[in-house]
Write a structure and sequence with these properties.
7 strands, mainly beta
């Protein structure tokens, strides 16, 4: 019987660890998807309305006028528990901004604030709050343009 001679190599398998912030049965839907949205201002030419920040399309966006102190508000339709907001910034981002909640769209509670925003994707978590309205209140812009968000997502966890 001939002897087979070949080199043997140990090739390890690779495993990927995936973390999910929810348990089976927990609500994980984006509460802002398709919701009514409003803004303090909208860039006119070209037109970037508030509704584009909650349409689920990563290629459309809301853009504000080119000044500080602007906001984007989402109406969840009824009081919901919210604990996380994901902001998907276009190149024009907020350096200083707040995430605020409201039961009625008039009185606002700040649940998160930062002065070190750097654009990209911000995954903002805070203690659970009951709110019908959620808004990003831009205080200071990070560029000479207005604020611009591809998506503003709101989650209960």
């Amino acid at each position: 019987m001939p002897l087979c001679r070949f080199s043997w190599q140990n090739r390890p398998t690779y495993q990927q660890v995936v973390s999910f912030p929810a348990r089976r049965g927990d609500p994980i839907a984006n509460l802002a998807a398709g919701a009514s949205a409003g803004a303090s201002s909208t860039q006119i030419l070209p037109y970037y309305p508030a509704s584009r920040a909650v349409d689920g399309d990563p290629t459309t966006r809301w853009a504000s006028a080119s000044s500080d102190d602007q906001w984007l508000r989402v109406d969840l339709g009824s009081a919901r528990t919210v604990a996380r907001v994901v902001l998907r910034w276009e190149a024009a981002y907020g350096k200083a901004y707040e995430i605020q909640t409201s039961p009625d769209g008039s009185s606002w509670t700040t649940v998160y604030s930062t002065t070190t925003g750097d654009g990209g994707v911000d995954n903002v978590t805070f203690g659970p709050a009951s709110a019908r309205y959620v808004r990003m209140h831009g205080i200071t812009r990070g560029t000479g343009y207005g604020y611009s968000l591809y998506e503003m997502e709101v989650y209960s966890r």
